[in-house]
Amino acid sequence: MAPLISFDNATKVFGTGERAVRAVDQVTLDIETGEIFGVIGYSGAGKSTLVRLVNALGESELRKLRGDIGMIFQQFNLMSARTVAGNVAFPLKVAGWSRQRRAERVAELLDYVGIADKARSYPGQLSGGQKQRVGIARALATSPSILLADEATSALDPDTTQDVLALLRRVNRDLGVTVVVITHEMDVIRSIAHRVAVMEAGRVVEHGPVYDVFAAPRERATHRFVASTLRDRPTPETLERLRHRHPGRMITVGIREGGGSGTDVTAALRAHAVDGTIVYGGISEIDERPFGSLTLELAGTDAAIDELIAQLRRTTDVDDLGTAAVPA
Fold it and tell me: Where is each ABC transporter domain found (predicted)?
C-alpha cells in the first residue's frame, strides 16, 4: 500500500539571500495509513513547518483536500464568541451541511470526546483539557483521514495531557484516522506514537519505530531527548557524589528487550562471582517493552569484572565508569 503522506526531498526556505533560513532541509519521509506518527525536535528544528507542508497545495487542490485533514493546535484556536457547539459546527457550515445534519454531527462528536454537557458553554468557561477536546471534535467534524496535532498538549498539565493522548489513541483505533503528532516532549511520543522522526536544524536525523529509535539512539539529538525524559544515567555531578559513597568499580548497563534485562545482569553476576549493588538508574516502557539503564557498584577481582563486562556487551551497551580512585 502506498504511503498516505510522502515527503520526497522536501525543502522549505523562508527569506532570500543572506537572510534565507532553511526551515526544512531535504526531508524524505513516508507516513503510513492508520499509524500514529510522531515528529519530535527542539524549538526551531523545523517540525511544525514540515507538517504544515502537508497543507501546502494550490488553492484548488487544497479546497478538495481540506475536508480530509483535521488540525489541532497548542493554543486551541477556538472562536471565543461561539459556543462549544458553534465551534464544532463551523467547518460543517462552511462545507454546506444542513442545519439538522450539523446538529446531529455536533451532538455525536461532543459525546465522543466526553463534553456533551458543555455544548452551550463558551470557550472562556472551559478548562484547558476541555478546550482541547473541543478542538479535537472540531478537527473530526468532516470525518478526515488525517489528523495533524501541533504541540497539542504543550499547554496542558501532565494529567490532562494523558487524558488528551488517550483520546487521540481512541480516535486512531476506533476511527482509523492517521494521526501525526508534532512535539518537543518525548513523553508524548513514548505514550502514543508507533513511529517517530527526530528533527534537528531542518533535517530528519533519525527515524523508525519508537522503541528502536529511543532504546538505541544513534544521534546526539535523540540521546538528548532520552536523557532529558528518563534521567536513567547519572550526570557528571551525580556521578561524583556517587563516587564518594561507592568507592568500588561502577558500570552502567543498558536495559533493553532481547538483551541486558535484569535477569541477564543477575545471571552474569552469578556466573562471574561478582557482587553488584544498584546505585542509580531508571527503567521505563515503550510499547510495553522495557528500556532504560542501571548503574551498579561491583565487588570482585578485576579479571572477573572484565569478563562480566565482556559478556554483557554481547547483548547490550555497558559503560565502564572505573572507580573513585581511578575514574573512567
Answer: 5-226
The arithmetic mean of pLDDT across residues 155-167, rounded, is 92
Q: Which residues contact 117 (CB under 8 A, 6 or more apart)?
A: none
- 62/169 same-domain check: yes
DSSP element (H, E) containing 11: strand 5-14
- Number of structural domains the chain divides into: 2
**Domain enclosing residue 98, as ranges:** 5-228
Whether residues 19 and 146 fall in one domain: yes
The full 3-state SS of 56-110, as one line of letters, equals CCCHHHHHHHHCCEEEEECCCCCCCCCCHHHHHHHHHHHCCCCHHHHHHHHHHHH
φ, ψ (nearest 5 deg) of residue 255: -105, 115
How many alpha carbons lie under 13 Å from residue 26 in its C-beta half-sphere?
1
Give the integer Cα–Cα distance in Å for 315 and 308: 12
My answer on whether 272 and 251 are in the same domain is yes
Per DSSP bridges, beta strands 36-40 and 178-183 are: parallel
Which grid cell is 244? 564518594
CATH code for position 106: 3.40.50.300
Query: What pLDDT score does 88 carry?
Result: 96
Mean pLDDT rounded to a whole number for the chain: 90
DSSP class per residue in 152-183: TTTTS-HHHHHHHHHHHHHHHHHH--EEEEEE
pTM of the model: 0.85
- Residue 257 and residue 209 share a domain: no
Q: Taking the chain, what is the end-to-end CA distance rounded to the nearest angstrom?
A: 50
Buried b (16+ CB within 10 A) or exposed e, 234-262: beeeebeebbeebebbbbbbbbbeeebbe
